[in-house]
Amino acid sequence: LVCRIHTGNIAVFYTVWSKEKGMGRKILFDVLDIMKERKYSKYITLSPKTEMAMKFHLRNGAILLQENPETNNFEYV
User: Fold this and answer.
1) Which is nearest to 41 in space by CA: 11, 14, 7?
2) Which pLDDT does position 8 carry in this prediction?
3) Whole-number Å distance between alpha carbons of 73 and 52
4) How would you write 3-70 as a 3-class SS string?
5) ∠ CA(68), CA(50), CA(43), 5° rounding?
6) How far is CA 4 from the centre of its chain?
7) Which tens digit of pLDDT belongs to each residue from 6-52?
8) Of 30, 53, 60, 65, which residue is 20 to 30 A from 20 by alpha carbon distance?
9) Torsion of CA 52, 65, 74, 54, to 10 degrees
């Protein structure tokens, strides 16, 4: 997981990936917990337009926020 922290209150996640089953989900939710403690107001992903990414985010409670030509954005609430 790559997470760059700057000023502001929106966390944008990209490259959530693990070869070990279940670790991508664990990494994402562990970092979400940290960001929630830091009072971020939105949690957005920049994800590839793949069926795997779509299923991953929807299965883990995100909503499809925006479709772009090469990426999709999901929001975790």
Assistant:
1) 11
2) 74
3) 14
4) CCCCCCCEEEEECCCCCCCCHHHHHHHHHHHHHHHCCCCEEEEEEECCHHHHHHHHHCCCEEEEECCC
5) 60
6) 13
7) 567 888 888 777 889 999 889 889 989 998 898 888 999 999 999 99
8) 65
9) -10
Question: Which position has the token pair 């957005």?
Answer: 44
Write out the two tokens for 46.
């920049």
Contact 67, 55 (CB under 8 A): no
pTM: 0.78
